[in-house]
Amino acid sequence: MTARPPRARGRARTPDAAAAVPEVLELQHLPLALIEVGGHNPRRALGALDELAASIEAHGLLQPVVVRQTGARFELIAGHRRVEALRRLGREHVPAIVRSADVDQAYVLTLVENLQRADLRPTEEAQGLEALVRQRGWSTRQVATAIKRSQAYVSKRLRVFEDPLLAPAVLTNQLSVSAAEELLAASEAARYELLSRAVEQGWDRQKVRAAIREVLVPRGARPPGLTRRIHQFRIDLRDIRPDQLTEPDRRELRQLFAELSMLARASIERRKRVFPPLPAR
Question: Residue 270: which region, alpha, beta or left (left: phi > 0; alpha: psi -120 to 50)?
Answer without folding.
Answer: beta
